[in-house]
Amino acid sequence: MPQPSLSVVIPAFNEAGNLPLLVDEVIAALRGRVDFELIVVDDHSTDDTLAVLQAAKARHPELRVLTHATQSGQSTGLRTGIRAARAPWMATLDGDGQNDPADLPKLLAARDAGPADVKLYAGWRVNRQDTGSKKWASKWANGIRSRLLRDATPDTGCGTKLFERAAFLELPWFDHMHRYLPALMQRAGWRTVSVPVNHRPRGAGQSKYTNLGRALVGIRDLIGVAWLIKRNRLTDVRELA
User: Fold this and answer.
1) CB 157 within 8 A of CB 179
2) Which residue, among 17, 79, 211, has the nearest Cα to 133 in the 3D structure?
3) Reduced to 3 states, what is the DSSP secondary structure of residue 86?
4) What residues pair up with 216 in beta bridges, in sequence order?
5) Domain 6-230 belongs to what topology?
6) How far apart are CA 224 and CA 201, in angstroms?
7) C-alpha–C-alpha distance, residues 155 and 146, integer Å
8) pLDDT, tens digit, 9 for 90 and up, residues 210-219
9) Per-residue pLDDT tens digits for 93-109
10) pLDDT, tens digit, for every residue of 133-151?
11) Residue ranges in the chain assigned as alpha helix (H)
12) Residue 7: helix, strand or coil by DSSP?
């Protein structure tokens, strides 16, 4: 296979009911448009996730499958896939199928038309297909995060993202850091852009998060990210001729 210019990374835990269609949709959205690889990171699933990925791998040469020896969480799954990726740019999707792979060409077009200092194109779910309580919790959390971090991002929880691999690997890593990528990229001196994307109902299985669980973890992480931003120092560097 040629060296890919795009690596799509999908972290997944117990998503056997969603992954076969999701993999097929990614392939359909990108094959013939860009040289790419698709990396699915199985987070030590207890269902048939590995079996369905093995079957999908037989159909699609672009697919690579990595698996964790222990369950390690979504941020670790993303980091595993990104560290193993061969392309300079990463696209990410959640494993539950709610993100639409058909939006990936839109993000690539936004990148190609954008300035070089934009290193993250973040999906913005303008028509959320979630329960009322989940949408309310997300709106509340986004409001608090936006006021505290001032990241000018309406939706950091969307799994649909496109970003430069090298820029991501320079960011401070911690569990759940995937929810703060715009603020962390801006802290590193890069610009970020939000792009409206589609959002779909979950096709099978159940969410791995609860509103309370997200809130308890989110408060602690929000304080930590705010501290990182406050303690940051950026400066231009010149080398004498």
Assistant:
1) yes
2) 211
3) coil
4) none
5) Spore Coat Polysaccharide Biosynthesis Protein SpsA; Chain A (3.90.550)
6) 32
7) 9
8) 544 555 567 8
9) 999 999 999 999 999 99
10) 566 656 666 767 777 888 9
11) 19-30, 49-59, 74-84, 104-113, 132-149, 165-169, 181-187, 211-230
12) strand
* Domain locations in the chain as residue ranges: 6-230
Tell me, rounded to whole angstroms, the distance of Cα 213 from its chain centroid.
20
- Closest to 85 measured CA to CA, from 193, 25, 168, 22: 168
Residue 135: C-alpha distances to residues 69, 126, 141, 157, 217 (Å): 33, 11, 10, 11, 18
**CA 199/CA 160 separation, integer angstroms:** 10
The total number of residues written for the chain in this structure: 241
Rounded distance between C-alpha atoms, residue 180 and residue 43, angstroms: 21
Angle at 60 between CA 97 and CA 81, to 5 degrees: 60
DSSP letter string, 185-236: HHHTT-EEEEEEE-B----SS--S--HHHHHHHHHHHHHHHHHHHHT-----
pLDDT in tens, 2-18: 799 999 999 999 999 99
**Site of tokens 């997200």:** 214
